[in-house]
Amino acid sequence: MPKSIKNRITQEIRNEIADEIIAKNLIYNGKVRHSDFLNRLFDLKEMPSTDYRPEYNNAYKDIYQHADMNPGDWDKGWVFTDERLNLTHCADEVYLKFLDLTVNPAMRDNDGTAKQLIDIYNKSLKSIGIGFQQEIELQNGAPKYSRAILAELQSGQTTKSLEIKRYLDSDYVKQKIDLMNQNVDQATDIAIGTGKELLETVCKSVLKQKNVMTNKDWTLSQLIKNTITSLDVKPKTVANPENAERSIRQILGGIASIVQGISELRNSYGSGHGKDDDFKGLDPIYARLFIAMVADISLFILNLNGKAELEE
């Protein structure tokens, strides 16, 4: 297979990960046979065999015979050096899918080894801004992990995104969140435009649940104000809940100013409006601030409202 693919995950990083897995005697395929694990990622039956015997005439049968049935035939790190799989030089996305599968709860027992692998991956991938973080949901009691850019891991943005997805469990919302996060450092206009659309969706879903009619001519600021008005913000456990509610609503009034800034930012630097051919997007540091604000406001509304149901 070709070895000239330009990758961010260098050969040195991949070797470092492989060396640690081998040194700590961790099993990449967990409780699943090597042949079945790898067949999820590669079409092993279309790959050649290293065994000359006709009964083992493709990679699936070859790996089954020598890695599953007779594990002593090959060295412990064979999977990382096998030229058919090309894990040392394959495209980043192929390599990351391999790492993803190694920590999939369906692949291994809930014995803590997934967390050991995650620690290895995060240590080695940190230098290029990639990391893994545990998701809120569990699968059969076992932790699930998802990939994220390092900036998300450091700021907690991934956790916020997962929480929003939990409240608004729809493919549309998940696509918007993923699109927003994926473009924050590259196509900031897409990230900003998508963030505004996400905030609009959150507000409209809450208002719809509360049977509040929306006006298509409302600005984002007006949409936010009407959403907050519909929410119960009165604390239930304080000595004077009425005074507390007045103070809280006064504080929440400041959100309108923030939202107005978001709208103006989107109009100038977000997607959805025609741009000149020499248009330059906003610096990523401001796009990350914008996305953090969208996530915080969205979660505040959703947390106050409880579980909101979204109908597409």
From TrEMBL:
InterPro entries, sorted: Abi-like_C, AbiJ-NTD3
Pfam families: Abi_C (PF14355), AbiJ_NTD3 (PF18860)
Domain AbiJ-NTD3: 8-176
Domain Abortive infection protein-like C-terminal: 222-302
Source organism superkingdom: Bacteria
Name of protein: Abortive infection family protein
Native source species: Sphingobacterium faecale
